Amino acid sequence: MPRFAQLVMGPAGSGKSTYCSTMVQHMEAMNRSVQVVNLDPAAEHFDYPVMADIRELIQVDDVMEDDSLRFGPNGGLVFCMEYFANNFDWLEESLGHVEDDYILLDCPGQIELYTHLPVMKQLVEQLQQWEFRVCGVFLVDSQFMVESFKFISGVMAALSAMVSLEIPQVNIMTKMDLLSPKAKKEIEKYLDPDMYSMMEDNSDTIKSPKFKKLTKAICGLIDDYSMVRFLPFDRTDEEGINIVLQHIDFSIQYGEDLEFKEPKEVDEEPANLNYDELFQGKVDS
Ligand SMILES: Nc1nc2c(ncn2[C@@H]2O[C@H](COP(=O)(O)OP(=O)(O)OP(=O)(O)O)[C@@H](O)[C@H]2O)c(=O)[nH]1
Ligand SMILES: [Mg+2]
Questions:
Q1: For this UniProt entry, which residues form the secretion signal (predicted)?
Q2: Contact at 8 Å (CB) between 216 and 175?
Q3: How far apart are the first and last CA of the chain?
Q4: 118 touches ligand 1 (CB under 6 Å)
Q5: For the sheet containing 52-53, what is the strand order?
Q6: Are 136 and 8 contacting, i.e. CB atoms less than 8 angstroms apart?
Q7: What's the gap in Å between 70 CA and the centre of ligand 1?
Q8: How far is the CA of 226 from the centre of ligand 1 (A)?
Q9: Distance CA 150, CA 148 (A)
Q10: Contact 221, 176 (CB under 8 A)
Q11: 3-class SS at 104?
């Protein structure tokens, strides 16, 4: 029986922990079992129950306080994640093995973890060895995406995670509920972007011909290969959350091997039910 996991990634503050708690509530309302693992050793608080918490293994504060290491917050985090990569058996033990495993992994926000450090790739390979089908979920804050240059850099961040992890990836624009109606309209063009026309819109603002050529090449690459798309995520919109979940489930083929469960039988009516009395009671009241 395959197991399923969402690797929830994205820049700091993009809404990863909120996404996890919203998704847990949504899936539980659908009667689906789901568990969350906190993989952020610097996490302060999150409002979902965890099945495992990396802080039981190692904490950033302890690393920073260590006089022999002398790390700051970012170096400390990298140290923690490397320590984690050398101790995957802790995760294996914490995960256990239940039927229909579906796990959300709430990752830290440091972008270097996805772009050039090997730890996330090692984690994905390890999960795959444990029979997990993993989908990357890359979150970007929609507030930072309403301008085309910011959008292009968001696309590049998502793309670098995609290329380095080599797993199916669903990209999401979070915090859609915070956008003004005008910005919401504006952002529609970024959800299914036409990179060429975006490039044309901004060609006047780029002065350097070399930079212009580079931007054009990047836009062309993204557009020609349909590499990056974004789905909107508004935590108040159940229907939208469901669409996101469907995309993710589809990418890891969740549901294909599930066994059909018989619906619960409705209790039979008691044999000695007196309909006359029941009817009488209704008429009297
Ligand atoms: N209105 C609104 N606020 C959101 C949404 N998602 C996240 N936030 C807020 O954005 C802030 C950061 O959200 P988190 O979920 O902690 O973000 P994160 O990516 O886990 O942050 P780090 O773990 O620090 O990288 C919090 O104050 C959230 O309440 C959303 O969909 N709508
Ligand atoms: Mg978080």
A1: none
A2: no
A3: 55
A4: no
A5: 52-53, 35-38, 102-106, 3-9, 132-141, 169-174, 230-232
A6: no
A7: 29
A8: 28
A9: 5
A10: no
A11: strand
Domains and CATH numbers, the chain: 3-193+228-259 (3.40.50.300), 194-225 (no CATH)
Pocket lining: 232 vs ligand 1, CB cutoff 6 Å = no
CA distance linking residue 212 with residue 203, whole number of Å? 7
| pLDDT at residue 139 in the model | 96
Per residue in 158-180, pLDDT (tens digit) is 988 998 999 999 999 999 989 88
Q: Which of 8, 9, 17, 143 to mutate to test the pocket of ligand 1 (most atoms within 8 A of CB)?
A: 17
- pLDDT (tens, 9 = 90+) of the chain, 285 residues, equals 789 999 999 999 999 999 999 999 999 999 999 999 999 998 888 788 899 999 999 988 888 888 887 888 888 899 999 999 999 999 999 988 776 789 999 999 988 888 888 999 999 999 999 999 999 999 999 988 877 778 888 888 998 899 899 999 999 999 998 988 888 887 887 887 777 777 776 666 777 888 888 888 888 888 887 778 899 999 999 999 999 999 999 999 998 766 665 666 666 555 555 656 655 555 454
Please tell me the distance from the alpha carbon of residue 135 to that of residue 10, in angstroms, as a whole number.
Answer: 14
Q: Is 142 in the pocket of ligand 1 (CB under 6 A)?
A: no
Please name every residue paired with 134 in a beta bridge, in sequence order, or none if there are none.
5
Cβ(14) to ligand 1 under 6 A?
yes
Ligand 1 site, residue 3, Cβ cutoff 6 A: no
